[in-house]
Amino acid sequence: MGKGIRARGRNAVTLGLERLLGEEFALLRGRRVGLVCHPASVDHEFQHAADLLLRRQECELAALFGPQHGARGDVQDNMVETPHAIDAASGLPVYSLYSETRQPTAEMLRGVDVLVFDMQDVGCRIYTFIYTLANCMRAAQAHGCRVVVCDRPNPINGVQVAGNVLQIGHESFVGQFPLPTRHGMTIGELALMFKHHFGINCDLEVVRMSNWSRALWHDETDVPWVMPSPNMPTLETATVFPGTVHLEGTRMSEGRGTTRPFELVGAPYIAAANYAERLNALKLPGVHFRACYFVPTFQKHANCVCGGVQLHVYDRQAFEPVTVGLAVVKVARDLYPDDFLWKEAPYEYEYERNPFDVIAGTTQLRESLERGDGSSVAQISDAWQAGLEDFRELRKEYLLYA
Asked: Which of 401, 393, 402 shows the shortest CA–CA distance to 161?
């Protein structure tokens, strides 16, 4: 690594990537390597995994694979496919796994001995990178190569879980497995669960981090924050994302096209002060809803003034994002029943199903909101507690960190 950038503190984490290039390099020595990466695939010196591997003479970096938004993060909008390309920095082929295929093909893996997966996740079921991992594991199983997962922190900590568990029969590219909305696992731990519990029986090696513990939030470590996707600019975004991502299933703006995506929510028909007052009256812990107006520069309601709120999380330990996300939807629908609309299909390669249901991983949340039977957000969230308890028990077997 370079010198002078990393300031080691009491939570000086050694990333899986750094351990792979150090004491675990035998996993790559003499091998042809395919790298699944994105802009946040960096070490503590902000050196990208592709550049680090290219410098190593003891292995051959043969190809790059990019997820949604691309290996270099060059596609801003969501649900816009990324083309295959040649990497300008290295001259290597870049295969898009958000294109006509979401899984590496036999041709892409020709000559690849080891598929290294090094991507920063955000701790939410509704984020496609963990399914790119699952698809890579399936391809490796089919074509006889090894998968090496370089583990990284769960930025919103590895203790808290929240939200409903995806209902069997509602799988999609934003939910392949019955996980809760906020899963509280690292990407390496999920890889182990995908293999041993969900049956993707590939040749798998997880390179653990050193000195990461479950209770840590990203800003409590010395790991640099690099945007894992263009609309995930900050840790604050990741904190609210498991809740306000549900707005993607509505015609309300989730703040894309602003400098605060997923923290700003609203629509042109919303009177900001009234909306904020109704939300704050729910007394949801750890968050204040500040009335505001904003103008998205792209995506929904581009160049239109939207009334809404900004979510200010003042106690992130008490804050429960999924309940808050449902509250944001429910209050808007209750206040503006003639204006509120669900988003129309398609959504993330689902061409018939209601996009809100795809995100939620069930029809039950939308149906509860539509019934208007007086069910409170608390009553809706109470219904998923048993599933959360079952998941907490299931995940114990796959947790790598104290």
From this structure: 393
311 is written with which tokens? 């979510």
Instruction: Give the closest residue to 109 by CA, choosing from 144, 80, 153.
Output: 144
pTM of the model: 0.95
Mean pLDDT of 197-210: 98
Distance CA 359, CA 378 (A): 20
Is the backbone of residue 39 left (phi > 0), alpha (psi -120 to 50) or beta? alpha
Strands (E), 144-303: 146-150, 162-165, 180-182, 203-207, 264-267, 287-294
Using the structure block, give the residue that is written with the tokens 């729910």: 282
Judged by DSSP in three states, 244 sits in: helix
Which among 361, 286, 284, 298 is positioned nearest to 328, based on CA atoms?
A: 284
What is the spatial distance between Cα 359 and Cα 181, in angstroms, rounded to a whole number? 9
189 by DSSP, 3-state: which?
helix
Segment 317-355, tens digit of pLDDT: 999 999 999 999 999 999 999 999 999 999 999 999 999
- Cβ proximity of 283 and 327 under 8 Å: no
Phi, psi for 357 (deg, rounded to 5): -65, -35
Angle at which helix 321-335 crosses helix 272-280, to 10 degrees, equals: 130
Mean pLDDT of the chain: 94
- Of 131, 130, 121, give the one whose Cα is nearest residue 155: 121
Please report, for residues 98, 139, 144, 193, 375, the alpha-carbon distance to residue 67 in angstroms, rounded to integers and kept in the order given: 6, 15, 21, 21, 39
**Average pLDDT estimate for 251-269:** 98
281 C-beta neighbours (distance < 10 Å), count: 10
Dump the DSSP string for 70-107: -TT----STT-PPPPEE-TTT--EEEESSSS-SS--TT
CB-facing half-sphere around the CA of 198: CA atoms within 13 A: 19
